[in-house]
């Protein structure tokens, strides 16, 4: 009986503590999220202190509801950092370090996406380059905006001999205004010496960099000028081939 009483006495505080902790966690999770501007300020101070740098840029944009898969308000944060800490460090390690530093801050943010660019001081000795800041712009997403940005950025990056982009949302029963499905054709010297996966990576990297959050599917045909010439000749022969 004494053993049972002692056991109950010892376990009761633990049970109570567990209940209290669970309640506190629930209360914390239901608190209002911090404004994105406040998240930016806190994150910037944290990174400057922990990475010992003054080169931190953080921006955010609010995604159009139609651009988010869950149809709710969603925020995209982008962070640029330059630090001595990143010297001789692989990019994925730099990003993991930065994300872990910011984890406790972004737990208090609204539903969001987060993208990072992390440079070492030997890569950016004079601070940020002008092109580093291009994707910090708070694009306002809406009808035709994504396609316009895509055309501008793809032409600037790949300097194509031929470039074509088509909104194919309607082929999948989706409103064109959502701008979520595109078909593109790029003919560029930039693809020389690159295999298909490498070319696709170049395209996907650009799409991610310019924050095309709403692009769910991108159907790509990527050629060098020589390959495209052969492709056109093959299509012509196929069209001229008499039907049996």
Provide a descriptive summary of the structure in words.
Strand 2, helix 3 (91-106) and strand 3 (112-120) form a beta-alpha-beta unit. The strands form 2 sheets. Strands 1-2-3 form a 3-stranded mixed β-sheet. The protein contains 6 helices and 6 strands. The relative contact order is 0.10. Helix 2 crosses helix 3. Mean pLDDT is 77; it is low at 1-30, 65-71 and 138-143. The protein has 2 domains: 39-118; 145-239, GMP Synthetase, Chain A, domain 3, CATH 3.30.300. With 244 residues, it is of the alpha/beta class. The radius of gyration is 25 Å and the shape is globular. The longest helix is centred in the first third of the chain and has 28 residues, at 2-29. It has helices at 2-29, 36-50, 91-106, 145-158, 196-209, 225-240; strands at 56-63, 74-83, 112-120, 162-167, 181-187, 217-223. Belongs to the BolA/IbaG family. Pfam families: BolA. Residues 1-17 form the signal peptide. Keywords: Signal.
Secondary structural class:
alpha/beta
Query: Over the alpha carbons, how many angstroms does the gyration radius reach?
Result: 25 Å
The CATH superfamily of the largest domain turns out to be BolA-like
Strand portion = 15-25%
Mean pLDDT: 77
The strand count comes to 6
- Secondary-structure element series: HHEEHEHEEHEH
Number of domains: 2
